[in-house]
């Protein structure tokens, strides 16, 4: 798998020749100025919840790439109202089979209102399964015992966890989440974009290390490879 970080909670992931894009928030992100939105490839756009820092560029990228948007019922209806045509609506607990692997929507503890005030349904995370490996994308969430279900459900090879605190869990709770999901290989997200979620990157990495876990912070616009 090839993983490219586009800032905040937005990642592009290539699996089996297909391109997944998570929570596009690029044009409003001052840290992601180097990212050229029109060069982003997407076959699937996964949206964890309705907040603007997860959905701001979804409409534009969905229309330009014709990617299938995977999101909850309420967000799907909202995007359809804006003219997005290729949408697959799910809800927490559901699983779908796609051409590159499977996606299961899992619980997140967070809110989900849409930017114009429309009700955005419930926030979700995703477990992605493929023959290249399985990963968990937590979205915005608090630490929750529900994460233990994820660890029991599948062997998670690596996980995207929010670490910025204030709006989501922070570093200390993300370290506990590793034990719940039985995975010690973490890619950090939802940090440094705004003042309220600024962290000390090196302190976060060494805290994980001291607890026997690995935190990767990918520089924006860079790609790493995971098998
Ligand atoms: Ni949020
Ligand atoms: Mn957020």
Rg over CA atoms: 16 Å
* Mean pLDDT figure: 98
- Give the second-level CATH assignment, the architecture: 4-Layer Sandwich
Looking at CATH, the homologous superfamily is: Ribonuclease Z/Hydroxyacylglutathione hydrolase-like
Using DSSP, what is the number of strands?
Answer: 14
Adjacency order of strands in the biggest sheet: 6-5-4-3-2-1-14
Helix content class? 10-25%
How would you explain this protein's 3D organization?
By secondary structure, the protein is α/β, with parallel strands linked by helices. The protein has six helices and 14 strands. It has helices at 52-55, 58-65, 73-81, 147-153, 171-181, 201-210, and strands spanning 2-5, 11-15, 18-22, 44-46, 68-72, 87-90, 95-97, 102-107, 124-130, 133-137, 158-162, 185-189, 214-216, 223-225. Strands 6-5-4-3-2-1-14 form a seven-stranded mixed sheet, with helices on one face. The chain has a seven-stranded mixed sheet with strand order 7-8-9-10-11-12-13. Strand 5 (68-72), helix 3 and strand 6 (87-90) form a beta-alpha-beta unit. Helix 4 packs parallel to helix 5 (171-181). It is globular. Nickel (II) ion (NI) binds next to loops.
Compact description:
The protein is α/β, with parallel strands linked by helices and 227 residues long. The protein has helices spanning 52-55, 58-65, 73-81, 147-153, 171-181, 201-210; strands at residues 2-5, 11-15, 18-22, 44-46, 68-72, 87-90, 95-97, 102-107, 124-130, 133-137, 158-162, 185-189, 214-216, 223-225. The chain contains six helices and 14 strands.
């Amino acid at each position: 798998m090839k993983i490219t970080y586009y800032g905040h909670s937005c990642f592009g992931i290539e699996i089996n020749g297909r391109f997944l894009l998570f929570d596009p928030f690029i044009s409003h992100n001052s840290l992601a100025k180097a990212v050229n939105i029109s060069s982003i490839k997407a076959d699937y756009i996964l949206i964890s919840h309705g907040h603007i820092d997860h959905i701001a560029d979804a409409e534009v990228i969905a229309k330009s790439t014709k990617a299938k948007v995977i999101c909850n019922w309420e967000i799907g209806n909202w995007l359809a109202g804006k003219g997005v045509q290729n949408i697959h609506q799910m809800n927490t607990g559901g699983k779908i089979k796609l051409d590159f692997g499977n996606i299961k929507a899992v619980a997140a503890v967070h809110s989900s209102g849409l930017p114009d005030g429309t009700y955005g349904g419930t926030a979700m995370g995703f477990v992605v399964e493929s023959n290249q490996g399985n990963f968990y994308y937590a979205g915005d969430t608090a630490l929750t015992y529900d994460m233990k279900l994820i660890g029991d459900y599948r062997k998670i090879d690596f996980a995207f966890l929010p670490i910025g605190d204030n709006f989501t869990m922070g570093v200390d709770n993300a370290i506990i989440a590793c034990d719940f999901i039985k995975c010690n290989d973490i890619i950090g997200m939802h940090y440094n974009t705004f003042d309220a979620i600024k962290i000390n990157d090196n302190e976060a990495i060494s805290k994980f290390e001291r607890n026997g876990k690995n935190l990767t912070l990918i520089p924006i616009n860079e790609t790493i490879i995971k098998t």
